[in-house]
């Protein structure tokens, strides 16, 4: 019997990708050098810099604000522009403010958590900063359904390390066999949960191929409609 459902937050319940695209589009329009770069190429470069610098922030090697400015300094250089910090700083601010105004849940997320909450406890397990993730939950109206939020900043360990899942299970007072993890990252969420003895469900809206065909996991392409999604999450895995 499933007594707890763990969710990833970014790009599972919270539309990080959509917010990031909106923010990056605003940044591109604001700077001539960036306007000359195809948006897809700009997006790929930005995502790479974000991932690399996010890791440095999570490890405590780089202050968050410095990482935000450095991301856009590198982006300007990648686009063939001047990578001076004083030019990158306003771009970082524009990106941040646009992202914040666009914050939204993934379609169906609020209704799904509302339906699950009377039947199971809900935890969020996220490789991110506590304040940022708390704000996202509040802005999207998800916080009222969440029993615990476990982030890598606070836990001092990141997915897929089983220790971060263990923190969530301990807080929810459930055993791994009585929990399920839903997330969009195969490496962090699916492999991390499975290594922790937790059943995993891959949230795969793009329909990407399964990275490891030997691994038998359920998939979700959408969080809607609520009833079949909730049944898949809460009912025992059958294959």
Itemize the secondary structure elements and their pairings.
Layout: E1 4-7, H1 16-30, H2 32-35, H3 39-58, H4 64-78, H5 85-101, H6 109-116, E2 121-126, H7 130-139, E3 148-151, H8 152-155, H9 162-172, E4 179-183, H10 186-195, E5 199-203, E6 218-220, H11 226-234
Parallel strand pairs: 1-2, 1-4, 2-3, 4-5, 5-6
List keywords for this structure.
2 domains; Rossmann fold; alpha/beta; DNA polymerase, domain 1; elongated; 11% strand; 51% helix; 239 residues; 11 helices
What can you tell me about this protein's structure?
The protein is α/β, with parallel strands linked by helices. It folds into 2 domains: 143 residues, Rossmann fold, CATH 3.40.50.1000; 86 residues, Orthogonal Bundle (DNA polymerase, domain 1), CATH 1.10.150. 51% of the residues lie in helices and 11% in strands. The protein is built from 11 helices and 6 strands. The chain has a 6-stranded parallel beta sheet, sandwiched between helices. The longest helix has 20 residues. It is elongated and about 55 Å long. The relative contact order is 0.16.
Can you summarize this structure?
It is built from eleven helices and six strands. By secondary structure, it is α/β, with parallel strands linked by helices. The chain is elongated, with a radius of gyration of 19 Å.
């Amino acid at each position: 019997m499933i007594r707890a459902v763990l969710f990833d937050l970014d790009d599972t319940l919270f539309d990080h990708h959509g917010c990031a695209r909106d923010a990056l589009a605003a940044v591109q329009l604001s700077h001539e050098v960036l306007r000359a770069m195809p948006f897809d190429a700009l997006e790929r470069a930005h995502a790479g810099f974000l991932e690399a610098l996010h890791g440095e922030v999570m490890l405590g090697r780089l202050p968050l604000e410095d990482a935000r400015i450095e991301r856009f300094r590198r982006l300007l250089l990648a686009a063939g522009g001047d990578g001076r910090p004083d030019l990158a700083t306003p771009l970082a601010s524009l990106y941040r403010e646009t992202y914040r105004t666009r914050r939204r849940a993934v379609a169906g997320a609020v209704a799904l958590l509302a339906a699950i909450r009377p039947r199971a406890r809900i935890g969020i397990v996220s490789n991110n900063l506590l304040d940022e993730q708390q704000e996202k939950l509040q802005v999207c109206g998800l916080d009222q359904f969440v029993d615990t939020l476990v982030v890598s900043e606070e836990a001092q360990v990141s997915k897929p390390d089983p220790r971060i899942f263990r923190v969530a299970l301990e807080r929810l007072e459930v055993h791994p066999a009585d929990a399920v993890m839903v997330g969009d990252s195969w490496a962090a969420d699916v492999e991390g949960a499975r290594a922790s003895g937790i059943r995993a469900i891959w949230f795969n809206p793009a329909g990407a191929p399964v990275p490891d065909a030997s691994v038998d996991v359920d998939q979700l392409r959408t969080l809607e409609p609520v009833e079949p999604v909730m049944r898949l999450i809460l009912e025992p895995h059958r294959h």
